[in-house]
Amino acid sequence: MNRVERVRRRAYLAVAGGSGVAHVFIVAEQLLRRDWANAAAFTLGMLVSAWVVVALAWLRWPTARLSGLIVTVVTISTTAEFVPLLRAPEIGTWSFLSFLIMVALWFGLLPLRAAVPATLLAYLLFAGLAASRPVHDLSLLVYLACTTILIGMASGFGQQITAFQQDAVTFEQAALTDPLTGLPNRRAALERLRHLHGLVRRGEHAGFTLVLLDLDHFKQVNDTRGHTVGDEVLRALGPALRQVLRADALLARWGGEEFVLVIPGTGAQEARVVTGRLDGLSLQLPAPLPEMTFSAGAVLAHEADSVAGLLDLADRRLYAAKRAGRRQLRWDAPGGPRQAS
Length: 341
Description:
The chain is an alpha+beta fold. The protein has two domains: 3-175, no CATH class; 186-330, Reverse transcriptase/Diguanylate cyclase domain (Alpha-Beta Plaits, 2-Layer Sandwich), CATH 3.30.70. The chain has helices spanning 3-33, 39-57, 63-82, 93-109, 112-131, 138-175, 186-201, 218-225, 227-242, 268-276, 307-323, and strands at 208-215, 250-255, 258-264, 282-283, 292-300, 329-330. It starts with a helix and ends in an 11-residue tail after the last strand.
């Protein structure tokens, strides 16, 4: 769930909760006064408010799924409220407020290209109704027009800001995603590594395992089958590896045919067990893609004082695995420290 959607959900819940409480008090007051004039409309508003809370908090509906429903129900409810005004001698202040609430919802939940003409038509009808009453106040209609314009302008700015925020989220996701495989990219992996390593250094995290892996003989696939097949192999790697990885493990494309794996919360003994499933693994890719193996080097978070040091050590262990015949995962390398037991 992105940031924009979270803000919308909080706003919807706050408005729906406040609206529900207000409608409960209004309906209760009408019951005490035995005033049934708008009881149906207020009861409907109370039920819709309750349904919005249920849909968001329990059913986890996206806000976009609720917008059309809310607009439709509020418009029907407000229109039903205005019908008795056709025979009323004057238009009360409450009706002006109901109109503004309906307009605010239109501008808040509908695109501007739909909200503007709907509001203009509704205002002309409402103003005509109010002006045709024997008792009317034209100044209220002027204030209503000004307030409606302000609501429209504020909504327009709000929708522009929301669009900019959504674009920013999209660009941020694109900047952290490898376009070929759809996996997190090198930048995303580095951010995750730096965050986890900082927590480990401060004693706020149990540790993690870092694995650098490189597909064996990938150049041969490109040379003999073409780069299109090579791209398909890279795309299929993520789903194939995910079958043997923990759900909380980060798998990212490091570059070319190299990938990085970050497994949080692993000590020395658990790391051996987790990476043991990768040692010598043969990746069964969808036909007609070839079967692939990989070489890998693994390190624990405490084996170096920096992320750069961890990456360098993992890289040396990776190439030690390649020199030793490929299709293996190494925890040691010539000239580098061995994994702590």
